[in-house]
Amino acid sequence: MYSSDxxxxxxxxxxxxAAQIEGAASVYGKGPSIWDTFSKKPGKIKKxxxxxxxxxxxxxxxxxxxxxxxxxxxxxxMSIAWSRIFPLxxxxxxxxxxxxxxxxxxxxxxxxxxxxxTLYHWDLPxxxxxxxxxxxxxxxxxxxxxxxxxxxxxxxxxxxxxxxxEPFGFTSLGYMLGVHAPGLTGVTNFFEAALHTAIAQADGxxxxxxxxxxxxxxxxxxxxxxxxxxxxxxDVMIAKRTDILMNRFFLEPALGLxxxxxxxxxxxxxxISYSTWRHQSRMAFDFDFIGIQNYFPLVIKYNAFIPVVxxxxxxxxxxxxxxxxxxxxxxxxxxxxxxxxxxxxxxxxNIMITENGAAFHDKxxxxxxxxxxxxxxxxxxxxxxxxxxxxxxxxxxxxxWTLMDNFEWAEGYQARxxxxxxxxxxxxxxxxxxxxWWQEFLSK
Length: 444
Ligand code: BGC
Hints:
Strand content: 15-25%
Number of helices: 17
Mean pLDDT: 97
Bound molecules: beta-D-glucopyranose
Active site: 166, 355
Keywords: Carbohydrate metabolism, Cellulose degradation, Glycosidase, Hydrolase, Polysaccharide degradation
Family: Belongs to the glycosyl hydrolase 1 family.
CATH class: Alpha Beta
Strand order of the largest sheet: 1-2-3-4-5-7-10-13
GO cellular component, one term: cytosol
CATH topology: TIM Barrel
Binding site for substrate: 20, 121, 165, 295, 401, 408-409
Largest sheet: 8 strands, parallel, barrel
């Protein structure tokens, strides 16, 4: 299997996110983001790691972009740090930050790479978080100001856009479970954040459509095949609910279908009280592509003691199935099935795999990084994607997560997902075996 098996127009790339690679977190005029403040709170990030320096991409972007080219990719997915443009979330613009993204984008174009820009990859300006962040009604005006600015500023050079990265990911982890920034908990916070995020997703897309000539606009959803632990009615019912939350909750409003409720009283109440008919049309947009990001399937069991969702995850480790260093099940067939699930909506025109990858305990042998497990992972997942594509699903591209080991949110620097190893003390980059495997795969 080589890249040419996927057709000559297929877009191959690597994905990154500002807060995970840039560093320079509190200099050059950048305002603090919620991840800067969250990481300063004790116990929130493993080993007390902070995104302050990350991969120092801010100073090393030329070398890193050259590396993307060396590996043979065509697309460089990056995100803009909102608080580097608007240190306070809106109003005063930080010219140095604006110039930085021009430089990065220009560097991509110089290297014949397509820059794909994510507007929001989780690093909300702290100033907005103080006013309630995604739970506050005012967030939509602030987001629209930011989206409009980026569209006008970069739209001549950037044609590929992703509005929001994993709405379910950050609203559930950050506003319901409290394990990601800003660390809020509770169902009410989640629902408020979800509604404003679903609105922002479509608002941002509409702004890009109006401002950017020939824009190709997508948004990126996390997705996981949900498998009931047993055939019992309760396990099947709870698996369906989990599927609604994890796979359908943000997708369906974007497709114009409103929030799904699945006869679940909790969601029915939410749909009635929070989401009126006005919101239903506002949350919809005819996206050029639907980004899907898959890392694991979930096996779900009913558990009456878990509040609200009553769903309990039966971990891959306890089921003794192959898993990554994050404990995430490795299952390429499940990747194939979730692609098919997303493709069943007639409103989904194209699918792009905007993230997929795995963390492993890479080994350093004779100065080389041996990560055969990652190579096997990609081989299996790409074969599964090819199968779906050959069955007629319009898959337009695949972006590997991620270029280099980076700041993996609450896991800090320990979880390594890169095709390139990074030594965080010296910032020395070393291409891993998997990076060379990609180079070969993309060469034919
Ligand atoms: C996120 C990335 C993250 C990756 C691995 C995705 O949910 O978009 O930022 O690093 O998963 O956890």
